[in-house]
Automatic annotation (TrEMBL):
One of its GO terms (molecular function) is acireductone synthase activity. Its cofactor is Mg(2+). It comes from the Bacteria. This is Enolase-phosphatase E1. Belongs to the HAD-like hydrolase superfamily. MasA/MtnC family. The keyword Cytoplasm does not apply. It holds the Pfam family Hydrolase. It comes from Pseudoroseomonas ludipueritiae. The lineage of its organism: Bacteria, Pseudomonadati, Pseudomonadota, Alphaproteobacteria, Acetobacterales. Monomer. HAMAP family: Salvage_MtnC (MF_01681). The gene is mtnC. It is an enzyme of class 3 (hydrolase).
Amino acid sequence: MAPVSAVLTDIEGTTSSIAFVKETLFPFAREALEGFLADHGQEPEVAACLTEARRLAKPGEDAAAALRRWMAEDAKVTPLKTLQGLIWRQGYLDGRIEGHLWPDVAPCLRAWARAGIGLHVYSSGSVAAQKLIFGHSAAGDLASLFTGFFDTTTGGKREAASYGAIARNLHLPPESILFLSDVAEELDAAATAGFQTCQLVREADGTQPCDRHRQAVDFPGVAGLFGLPLPRAAAA
Ligand SMILES: CSCCC(=O)C(=O)COP(=O)(O)O
Ligand SMILES: [Mg+2]
């Protein structure tokens, strides 16, 4: 097993609970959508999302209807993910939303960063949304621990080509990167691209364990399996 020089992590189900995403973030965006489009629909970034939503919509479906349908389907469609990030921004800034992280995550991320392990995110949530959840997390502002942020504009998380593109972007051999996720199909795609993989099996999220990949119940468990440093208190 090659030494791990970088960690690429998923968010929902890995660093953060599925319940937070499905019961806080998604409803927040769903309830604010119409008002947000009415207030900001003319702004270039929002208008570009609406144009792309119209292009991807079903025949006869307008952009708002397509966005509502994708929300109901939890479809990882780029214009929806971009708009959700823009809507959540106000909630994070005025304190209505605080990014959930499992308590084991921040101490390990800090220990790994201190040891020179590169930290990167790959989530279906937009890059802006990734920076918000880590920048306004329950454990403080962790966004600066990460250098790489990748979303659906790099490709789908179940496609091996996406992980190849990420390794090239990071200028790292795939086998030196450890990908963390709760979803077996994402881990399969990363392994096909040559990444090391570990499934986070979070009891509270009801993760379905997959024996094609090594498994850990939390980030210290990941550290133990892959020779990464533990936070000082846990290491003592
Ligand atoms: C950036 S937090 C919101 C996550 C999100 O929108 C989502 O669709 C979950 O995607 P993930 O790839 O983190 O499982
Ligand atoms: Mg996930």
